[in-house]
Description:
About 10% of the residues lie in helices and about 35% in strands. The chain is mainly beta. Strand 30 (about 545-550) and strand 31 (about 555-560) form a beta hairpin. Helix 3 (about 80-90) packs across helix 4. The longest helix is centred in the N-terminal third of the chain and has 13 residues, at about 80-90.
Amino acid sequence: xxxxxxxxxxxxxxxxxxxxxxxxxxxxxxxxxxxxxxxxxxxxxxxxxxxxxxxxxxxxxxxxxxxxxxxxxxxxxxxxxxxxxxxxxxxxxxxxxxxxxxxxxxxxxxxxxxxxxxxxxxxxxxxxxxxxxxxxxxxxxxxxxxxxxxxxxxxxxxxxxxxxxxxxxxxxxxxxxxxxxxxxxxxxxxxxxxxxxxxxxxxxxxxxxxxxxxxxxxxxxxxxxxxxxxxxxxxxxxxxxxxxxxxxxxxxxxxxxxxxxxxxxxxxxxxxxxxxxxxxxxxxxxxxxxxxxxxxxxxxxxxxxxxxxxxxxxxxxxxxxxxxxxxxxxxxxxxxxxxxxxxxxxxxxxxxxxxxxxxxxxxxxxxxxxxxxxxxxxxxxxxxxxxxxxxxxxxxxxxxxxxxxxxxxxxxxxxxxxxxxxxxxxxxxxxxxxxxxxxxxxxxxxxxxxxxxxxxxxxxxxxxxxxxxxxxxxxxxxxxxxxxxxxxxxxxxxxxxxxxxxxxxxxxxxxxxxxxxxxxxxxxxxxxxxxxxxxxxxxxxxxxxxxxxxxxxxxxxxxxxxxxxxxxxxxxxxxxxxxxxxxxxxxxxxxxxxxxxxxxxxxxxxxxxxxxxxxxxxxxxxxxxxxxxxxxxxxxxxxxxxxxxxxxxxxxxxxxxxxxxxxxxxxxxxxxxxxxxxxxxxxxxxxx
Length: 688
């Protein structure tokens, strides 16, 4: 994508942008005008620094993938720690232009407008703008044309495009808005038949390309008023500090000044077939100046650590009590940098007795922050001590629904549920209900060897009710909780008393629902379904078989399993009971994990193919040959086998000699017939 690949100026009325790359070694970052590709070991900071050094620009791509926002959970989008991480990046790198706020059909990005407003609220008072982009991220032609950016250019040239991106002289348009945030309007969230909108474009969403999405005709900002003229819209809303402050084409800044607390306002132009969003308008009192960023980065405060809850008998050590290894320091520039903390176990007050397995004990522990490896200084001599509250004997258990939908990345959580699936050594799926968000991925980060890592999660836990305590995180689109039994951070245990526990039954589902459903909405769910087998393959996924099931319109679903019924052949209808759903981002499809869950894969009696029936009779055919009768009716020659559907060998039969072959799925039937009319003299059939 270098300069030598530029389109001629008169080709299609288009220009090319050089060195366009989605850097994917870390959180995905779109870089433009920067000739490099990340090497292994790159970090977000190193990628942005290289981009800046080469004179390029960067965009943070689909941040919801890394904040739990992809599942429609805006909790991490409000998390001060997560927000401050982006604030730091935009503060440090002028070449970082903004966020990708719409990606494909707004699945992963559905809560990213929440992140955007939170970051704007921190940075706009200092005059640092953060622009929003809307991108297709298309991996096929059917995924193109759903998101775009309208750049305001004097001339169609490369430098003008770069300048418009840097200046925010553009607006974004998206055909789908899933509307998770408080300000977000829902647009095109379902298909015309009422089924869920797919995660990305496909053959069935092309109809949206013929719909008129909103567009902006003109913007006039003067006399403390902003007026927008638009096309194909029904409503214009104005947003400040993450809240809608006005509805209408004109915004009187004076009338709404008391609701504009962070020196910005932005507009959303909504129509029946999409949404257009402006960039933030910076506003301030004429008599006041914007804040100035301090030249130093001294410590201002240290975030209070989360309260900790552990079980009876927890050792009086930092690991045993699940004390965090870092604390978040807040600097003069508003950055929250993790700093190591050392806990003084002699500071426990009041005293703690690990041998007391009856009483609930509450106490505090004091720790000291070490800023050595941070970018924060402490020239003012602020206190580096912090205390944490610990309760032994009680777990603050929450539902898996709450863990998935209301808890942020980094939160300490405790959940209970049935183990309904296993994905590799030390990776489980647990559920506590049949709700759509009833699955949680449990990842053991303590290692893989049972000898080296006690308390290892194993297949033996399938069907058990367990309690898991650890750190909320995201593991490739899966809402997850991480434990580390090697270091003592988190734990799991079997709960023997399962009285009054819900019974987890599989959800009957179709391939349509899987492929048309919101990406990740079915993640970790226990499902059952029937589907045709179109391909079976071996040697993948640790010698498991991967079998593709295909819907004619919506693409494939994979079944990854240890065994498939030996007699299953392409075309057969197979039955998957109690399979675990997993979204494969790289394949843009769902995968069903079966066999290594509580599930089974069978061949139902109905819909068995002729090829399958011949496989069933394989031993008899090898011993005695294939025996049957021929029928010639209306010039159609048919082979009749007892207990099977007729096999048509040939049509339009008009001579005595007929030969050919028929594909039966697992066998090819080769025939050679010689005779006169219905008087067959030689009949030979071979199964290959």
